[in-house]
Amino acid sequence: MAKNRTFTMLKPDAVENGNIGAILELINTSGFRIVAMKLTQMSRKDAETFYAVHNERPFFGELVEYMTRGPIVAAVLEKDNAVEDFRTLIGATNPAEAAEGTIRKKYAASIGENAVHGSDSDENAAIEAAFHFAGRELF
Ligand code: DAT
Ligand code: MG
């Protein structure tokens, strides 16, 4: 399997709760290489664009409020099978359904505030990485 890349955000709740270090430790020990990383905050327009696929869903307003309420850590991660393996590491969208040992099981409070994002396809990983990072910021 060739090395490929995924995009992640440690969401505002993860930053507020002081979980950046613990989550990065899990990411590193799970074999992902950090290719790009920064602390940033999404504007309302950023969040509406990033999550546009969900804009008809009943939770869209709450999602935008949550994702814009404080800083996030945005990062690009590299590993064999990165997209699928990172989805496994973060666990189910709803932390109540997430497997033991996953990031969401350990650090997420609810389906709405679930600590971490992971891209769902190689195509979306590339789009999401380009949304947050310029080419010169990828190492
Ligand atoms: P994931 O983040 O696991 O890819 P998703 O793409 O279906 O999940 O949804 C994006 C985010 O929207 C998710 O991380 C949290 C929020 N969300 C999804 N379903 C929700 C629901 N039923 N109620 C509240 N928030 C929800
Ligand atoms: Mg998703």
Automatic annotation (TrEMBL):
Q: Which residues cross the membrane?
A: none
Q: Which residues form the active site?
A: 117 (pros-phosphohistidine intermediate)
Q: Which positions fall inside the Nucleoside diphosphate kinase-like domain?
A: 3-139
GO CC annotation: cytoplasm
**What residues does ATP bind to?**
11, 59, 87, 93, 104, 114
The EC number of this protein is 2.7.4.6
Keyword Transferase included in the entry's annotation: yes
Q: Which SUPFAM superfamilies match?
A: Nucleoside diphosphate kinase, NDK (SSF54919)
Per its record, the protein catalyses: a 2'-deoxyribonucleoside 5'-diphosphate + ATP = a 2'-deoxyribonucleoside 5'-triphosphate + ADP; a ribonucleoside 5'-diphosphate + ATP = a ribonucleoside 5'-triphosphate + ADP
**Its principal location?**
cytoplasm
Keywords from UniProt, A to Z, are: ATP-binding, Cytoplasm, Kinase, Magnesium, Metal-binding, Nucleotide metabolism, Nucleotide-binding, Phosphoprotein, Transferase
Q: Which GO terms describe its biological process?
A: CTP biosynthetic process; GTP biosynthetic process; UTP biosynthetic process
Q: Which PROSITE patterns match?
A: NDPK_LIKE
Q: Which domain of life is it from?
A: Bacteria
Q: Where in the cell is it found?
A: Cytoplasm
InterPro entries per the UniProt record, alphabetical: NDK-like_dom, NDK-like_dom_sf, Nucleoside_diP_kinase
**Cofactor(s) needed for function:** Mg(2+)
Molecular function GO terms recorded: ATP binding; metal ion binding; nucleoside diphosphate kinase activity
Binding partners and assembly = Homotetramer.
> What is the purpose of this protein?
Major role in the synthesis of nucleoside triphosphates other than ATP. The ATP gamma phosphate is transferred to the NDP beta phosphate via a ping-pong mechanism, using a phosphorylated active-site intermediate.
Q: Which family does it belong to?
A: Belongs to the NDK family.
Entry-linked PANTHER family? NUCLEOSIDE DIPHOSPHATE KINASE, NUCLEOSIDE DIPHOSPHATE KINASE DDB_G0292928-RELATED
Name this protein carries in UniProt: Nucleoside diphosphate kinase
Q: Which organism is it from?
A: Gillisia mitskevichiae
